[in-house]
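Attaching the record inline, Q. Sequence:
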Amino acid sequence: MEYYNIEADENWENKRIDKALTDYFDDYSRSFLKNLFEKQFVKVNGIPVKPSYKVSSSDVIDISIPEPVQVEILPEDIPIDIVYEDEDIIIINKPKGMVVHPAPGHYTGTLVNALMHHFQNNLSTINGEFRPGIVHRIDMDTTGLLVICKNDNAHQCISSQLSVHSITRKYYALCYDNIVDDEGTVDAPIGRNPNDRKKMAINYKNGRSAVTHYKVLERINNKYTLIECRLETGRTHQIRVHMASINHPILGDELYCSRKNEFHLQGQTLHAGVLGFIHPTTNEYIEFTADLPEYFKNLLKKLRQL
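Structure, as predicted:
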């Protein structure tokens, strides 16, 4: 059991305690914290409280957190689209709906489960047993290219390129409305949305630098725009947040777009189509491309006929 003793201050004043603790514990979900209240593991001034309790700045909050349940991540015979493979790296074209690595609520069916089956112990270990071989990731409903590392030397090499933003990453997205300028840049820091921990947001106070360059590829009936985005940085949900911030959210993005999902899409129409970097052994620049997935092509065809 892990114990926390928190002395509330003016920043906690009159907040619901469940909301305050959700903001305080960034790693714990609302459902996890709700369970703590149900088990009376959250006490204020020595007395168990309900999630609706309003905090006073003089309160002392005691929280008991049980040891996490150990989850075994198992290999699964899941087909994966291997674009390229050598002794150091694997390039994967990830399908829509696949989570990259295990996380609460997703311990099976992930890319990691598939990699463990296909490559067994031949994966880098730097990111631990939950993320073998994983250097970077893309969202569950984003399709496209990922590099997987087979050994720690390759992992360190690719990771260092990511840290200095020297890797080429180009995405293709379908956005709402007509983007007037042929190209542009969104340079705005991204951080956790203070009002909704599941979302990211433009956050000038606590965000990290984020830069997205976009270029118009096609305007469709003055209602939709197909764009290419080149990332300088790789923040969580970066393209989705940046395009929504300039009032051109991505079709199907139910997290950052309030418009009706009229085409019944499964998440955002976003595809990682180009990935390039210096090979960890040959020191030569290599680049890979992945064609748009069929659902994306079919949607473009439908929009052009409207």
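The longest strand covers residues 211-220. The CA atoms of residues 13 and 170 lie 45 Å apart.

More tomorrow.
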